[in-house]
Each structure stands twice: as C-alpha cells, then as structure tokens.
Specification:
- There is one protein chain.
- By secondary structure, the chain is an all-beta fold.
- It has a three-stranded antiparallel beta sheet with strand order 2-1-3, with no helix packed on it.
- The termini are far apart.
- About 0% of the residues are buried.
Length: about 60
Amino acid sequence: MGQLLGRWGKEGQPFVVGTHANLEQHGNTDGRTLWLRMNDDGGLHDNDGHLTVAIVHL
C-alpha cells in the first residue's frame, strides 16, 4: 500500500518500483510507454499531495 507501481504499456504486468528502480530495456519495446501510479486500494478520488519522479537515461 502506498508504493509506486509501474508497467510497460496499457496491458503490461504491474511491478513495484518502490523508492528506486533500475529498469533495463531488452530488445524491442514496440513503443511501449512506462506508466506509473501509486498503489491505492481506496481509489484515486481522495488522493492529496504530490510525488516527484526522476527518470535518467544512461
């Protein structure tokens, strides 16, 4: 609960990003987008605050 989740593309499998993650591209990503959201079982209607995410391409 409250962890940052990610998935590649709309149909991708969710995975825990947590406080940091090293994601490596292997092969063709077929233009998939990295989607991020907080893990919240109460829905998004009551969310407050903000989250800063830095993405660095090495």
